[in-house]
Write a structure and sequence with these properties.
By secondary structure, this protein is α/β, with parallel strands linked by helices. It is 44% helix and 13% strand. Strand 2, helix 2 and strand 3 form a beta-alpha-beta unit. The longest helix has 19 residues. Bound molecules: 1,3-dihydroxyacetonephosphate.
């Protein structure tokens, strides 16, 4: 269960969140909990989560270890401060910052090089779904962003299916719609990396996940977790999702 805070919260807000959140998930079992705050809050989040079992991730990284790349942050730096995960190719980055499939591959490889688990986002836009192109779009993203990886690299990747029309809109994909997309993605994994890799890969659903819809989504066979935006900002609601 991963939370993506996007561009919300200051370090003071981050401390307050974890003070409230930690006791609420202290008894959570059989679940990996990850929070992905903005870069400016990573230090606060990592300090707060020490010895708690809660992992911290970044929302982006740049490939390369260091260099003259103003405004960017490398996997090496994220590893050095104690990050364990990084979100890659969120639809907001694809849309506003033009991230392309070759960028996705470079970022995944950079994450793995520095021991970070990449959470790689794929998903169709509303017009693509309405045109009946969902599977084509998912296939293109898979073929361009994930299929080029070596099998041992792919084994460390988490995939997040986030239909763009369900993000921040309150329009959750129905469990059936989400399951169909997850099954399709798992099928692509099986074709490229084999049945064992397909069974092992974790595919998270993202898009208006809330405490009141998480149980139904999670009851689908191919939905292994959630990538939560808005509802991860509130300690009680994210804890309710973790503890579903
Ligand atoms: P919401 O949960 O706010 O719809 O955001 C989903 C998302 O984009 C998580 O990465």
């Amino acid at each position: 269960m991963a939370g993506n805070w996007k561009m919300y919260k200051t370090p003071a807000d981050t401390h307050a969140f974890f003070e409230a959140f930690k006791p609420l998930v202290a008894d959570a079992k059989n679940v990996d909990i990850v929070l992905c705050p903005p870069f400016a809050d990573l230090h606060a989040a990592i300090t707060e989560t020490a010895n708690s079992g809660i992992a911290v991730g970044a929302q982006n990284l740049y490939w390369g270890k260091e260099g003259a790349v103003t405004g960017e942050v490398s996997g090496h730096m994220l590893q050095a401060i104690g990050c364990q995960y990084v979100i890659i190719a969120h639809s907001e980055r694809r849309q506003y910052f033009g991230e392309s499939e070759p960028d996705v591959v470079r970022k995944i490889e950079a994450a793995l090089e520095y021991g970070l688990t990449p959470i790689v986002c794929v998903g169709e836009r509303l017009e693509e779904r309405e045109e009946g192109r969902t599977e084509e779009v998912l296939a293109t993203m898979f073929d361009g962003g994930l299929a080029p990886l070596a099998a041992e690299q792919f084994a460390k990747v988490v995939i997040a299916y986030e239909p763009v029309w369900a993000i921040g809109t309150g329009k959750t994909a129905t469990p059936e719609i989400a399951e169909a997309a997850h099954r399709f993605i798992r099928g692509k994994v099986a074709e490229k990396f084999g049945a064992d890799a397909a069974a092992a890969v974790r595919i998270l659903y993202g898009g208006s996940v809330k405490p009141d819809n998480v149980t139904k989504l999670m009851s689908e066979e191919d939905i292994d977790g959630a990538l939560v935006g808005g509802a991860s900002l509130d300690p009680k609601s994210f804890a309710a999702i973790v503890n579903f």
